Amino acid sequence: MVKDDERKATENSSGKVLDHESLHFESISRFFKGGASGLLSGALLQPFQVIKTSMQVSIQDNAKYLQSSLRPDQMNALKANEMMSLTARQATVLIYRKEGLSGFMRGFTPSVLKNTLNAGSYFSMLYYTETLIRATHLFNESQVAALASASSRTFQSIISNPLIVVKTRFEVIGFSEYAGVRDAFS
Q: Which residues of 32-57 are buried (b: 16+ CB within 10 A; e: fewer)?
């Protein structure tokens, strides 16, 4: 049996003392809560992500799809390499004409995975590192927040970066290097 004074405990932001089991449970709880918010935001914002990615891709790559939606002066600018990017309206029309409504959901699976993993890992790590740093009593509250946030964001970026690359490739019109999400990771 473990004595109370031997038991390692940590104080959270509200001043409540947590044992390590409670700390781990709360971190896992925050992972699922953050993951749920990431899942929802990823699902709702995916059409806008596809439009944004289409606007960022070279307009010359999409010239053959744009001919019917551009005015003659815009087509001349395109041919002269003066037109460098699509407007949001042009990107939306291009996606709809080429792929229909399903085109706005290109890259949905890797995007939702990325958002879920990003938000879940960030909120979980933020809580966990904040609690551990606070327990050292070496830093004031603003330093605790800055250190915990920086370390959590770094961790979250490292684990989600491969998903960002895959997600962006799936969102580009005409990109067909992968047969599916599973193929992208093999």
A: eebbeebbebbeeebbebbbebbbeb
